[in-house]
Amino acid sequence: QRTHLKNICLQYQLYLLLKHHFLYLLKNETGLIIIFLCAYVPKTAAGHCKWEEVLKDLERIKTSKDIDVSLYTANTDEDKECQEPIMRCFFLEMNVIVQECYIKNCSKTQYVVNILKNGNVNLENNKVSNTNILTSAKCKECEEYEEKNFTEFIQSFVKVIQKECK
C-alpha cells in the first residue's frame, strides 16, 4: 500500500505541474522532457514487485524471539500453477502469527499486521478466475503441508515471494 501511495503522490504532483504549465512546457525543450518523464515514470513504477513491502516486513520479523508457533509451510518447489494457493496458505498462517502476537504482546506485531494488510490487498487484486480454480484442484490444501517452526516458515515464505517477484 505504501508503494501505491508513493506512486499516486508522484503522479498527482506531475499532474499539477502539467495542469498549470502545460502550454508553456510545450514551447521549450525542458517541458518536453518533463512530459516524457510523466508518461514514463508510472510505467517504471509498475515494474516493481508488488510484494516488495511484504518482503521488507518479513525480513523485519524473521529474527523475532517472541513468536514460537508451528505453521503449515508450503514447499517452495511446488508447480507454478499452485503459486496462488500457496500464497493464500502463507497468508492464512500469518493470521495464526497475528493471534500469537496479540496474546504474547510481540515487539514485531505491527510488521505482522502490515504483512497481512499488504498481502490481502495484493491477493484481492489477483482474484481467482475459473481456470485457476480448476488448476488449484490438483494443489495441496494448506493443512496438507508439513508443520514447521516459525523460522523455517518465514524462510519458505520469503522464497515463494521472491519467485513471484522474478
From TrEMBL:
It holds the Pfam family IL15. Coiled coil: none annotated. GO terms for molecular function: cytokine activity; cytokine receptor binding. This is Interleukin. It is found in: Secreted. It comes from the Eukaryota. GO terms for biological process: immune response; neutrophil activation; positive regulation of cytokine production; positive regulation of immune response; positive regulation of T cell proliferation.
